[in-house]
Amino acid sequence: MHDLSPSGLSRLAPSRRTLLRGMGGAAVLGAGVPLLSACGGSGTAADPKTVTVGSNASDAVPKKAFADIYAAFKTQSGITVDVNTKDHNTFQEQINSYLQGTPDDVFNWFAGYRMQFFAAKGLATAVDDVWQTIGGNFPEAMKALSKGEDGKYYFVPLYTYPWAIFYRKSVFRQNGYTVPTTWDQFVALCKQMQKDKLVPIAFGDKDAWPALGTFDQINFRANGYDFHVELMAGKASWTDAKVRKAFDLWAEILPYHQDGAVGRTWQDAAQTLVSKKAGMYLLGTFVGQQFTDAADREDLDFFAFPEIDPAYGQETVEAPTDGFMLSKAPKNKDGATKLLEYLGSPAAEEIYLKSDPNVVAASTKADTSSYSALQKKAYEMISGAKHLTQFMDRDSRPDFTSTVMQPALQKFIRDPKGIDSLLTSIERQKKTIFASS
């Protein structure tokens, strides 16, 4: 998802929708104050024993995890990694001007559409040579996420995590609930939880991004992976009957969502699951951050969003994936290539996971023996998926999702009536934004 890496979530603010507004426009690509710049500056000659990395990992947990990886890489290769760390949101805001200037050799970024956008603009270098070395470490779905529109590789994934419906095993056990696998079973469970004086679905959309994930789940369960991709890419219409169907389904379960969601953060919503006031919560595995007590964490479990159309079953998993890209003109390309090869290795992923247990390795060859039960289940869900999606504003243009979809979905949550006029408005704005590329 956008800055849905677990480390970045706690700082997301309502101003999120102002980020990357002009991401698609050629004129806007050069706009913005280039405060985010490379480590050495434009006049510094390349040092064959140093690789520079532009990092958005500003929080303590990922910062340490990456430092450990780079230390191990130096031991192995003799190459020093000079890290240029910026605040997570600042990095997102200034990424356009940064990449057009004199960026670092390698930079942290996200898989999917966001990666493809910069690749298509010529602001990243293909890394097919890296994938000749690391290709055997990843499943086909992860390979697909790492390719540009031209079929070349531009991305090296490091970690990922699924979105699913979380619940407490003890609550289900005490009330005799069973995990629903179909939409009808899910709706019936919501009704029963409401009778049992539980909030069926915890929900907090104050920062405007969680609702994007709810729409994604309903859309690709009802309409399939291919339609999801077309809709996110601006190729399918938001006035299509399939989209209306997705919103009608959402309207059906909206009464079972926690009231006042637009004024509640995801952390506060998660606390209602911790305190057993809510029965379920749709979110990424980073929800585990809120379960600080060991016994509570042991009680946490999740299941895949239920099937809506049997034609699509539960084959698609939303799994935001974070990793690295190679800038357009790296000063030390040989060193950067070696670093990317190392970052695509099971060894690098295992080092990262020692510091951040809320995510799982993108590689199928990383050692999973130290995984918690939740991590093992997350890994199995992702590795067993037929299709992997990112979060809506990673699968689509961030300017579209932040300025159009986030406020539109909050409007829907406040008042689910008038869906047709809402979708007409979304489609009109979409045409304008996507035409600017």
UniProtKB/TrEMBL annotation:
Record InterPro entries: Bact_solute-bd_prot1, SBP, TAT_signal
Superkingdom of the organism of origin: Bacteria
Name recorded for this polypeptide: ABC transporter substrate-binding protein
Organism: Streptomyces aurantiogriseus
